[in-house]
Amino acid sequence: MIGELQSDLADLGGTALFLTADRIKEIDYLSMTTQSRVKFIFRSPKLSFTDNVFLLPFSASVWICIISFIVISGVLLLIIMKVELRCTNVRYGNVIRPNVMDTVMNMFGTSCQQGSYLEPKSLPAKCLILLSLIILMFLYASYSANIVALIQSPSNKIRTLEDLLNSRLGTGAEDTVYNRYYFMHETEPIRKAIYDRKMRTRDGS
After folding, report:
1. What does the UniProt keyword field contain (predicted)?
2. CA atoms within 13 A on the CB side of 144
3. N or C: which end of the chain has fewer CB within 10 A?
C-alpha cells in the first residue's frame, strides 16, 4: 500500500500502520479512527499448574496452629508419661524410661493416624492421644476434600503481561508483518522479555 501511495496509484489507504521516521517522509497519517489492541488468548490453566496445591488447602496461620498443636501435645504427653513413671512406676513395653525421642515418635505416629509402641497407661495420657487423633482426623478429612476441589479448579493468577511472563505457559503470535515488526522493535521491558524468552526462536526470528 505504501508503494501505491508513493507511485500515485492510490490517493488514500486504510490499514493499521506503525508510525516510523522513514514513512513520515513519504505519507501523511490520519488520526486513529478506532481503538486497536493486541491480546494473548489462552485457556485458563489448572491451579496445580501455577501453585503448589498441597499447601493451598490451609492458610499459613492454620498450618502454624497445626504444628503448634502437635508440638504442645508432644510436650504434654512427655510430661504425663514422666509423672506416670514417677508416681506409678509403670513400664511402657520394653521402654523403662520414656524420653524425648520416644515421645516424638509417638506424636509422629499419631499425626500420621498410626499407632505407637508406647501405650499411655493413665487416663490423662489416653485422653490426650484420643483428642489428638480426633482433631487430626478432621484435619485430614478437610485437607483431602480441599485437595480434590483445588485440583479441579482453574487458576486466575494470570492477569497481566508480567504474570504471563512469569508463568510456565508457552506463548506465540500470528506470523504477520505487523506482529514481527511490533515484537522485534518493542522497547518496553516486559513485552520485550516475553518476545525474547517465550517467542523468539533459536535463529532469532
Report:
1. Cell membrane, Glycoprotein, Membrane, Receptor, Transmembrane, Transmembrane helix
2. 6
3. C
Site of grid cell 498450618? 63
Q: How far apart (Å, rounded) are the C-alpha atoms in residues 57 and 62? A: 10
**Each residue's pLDDT tens digit, 23-77:** 777 777 777 666 767 777 777 777 777 778 888 888 889 999 999 998 898 888 8
Question: Residues, the chain, total?
Answer: 205
Q: Which three cell numbers stand for residue 5?
A: 501511495
pTM over 0.85: no
Q: Are 51 and 155 in contact (CB under 8 A)?
A: yes
CA distances 117 to 93, 95, 106, 108, 123, Å, are 7, 9, 8, 12, 17
Q: Are 200 and 175 in contact (CB under 8 A)?
A: no
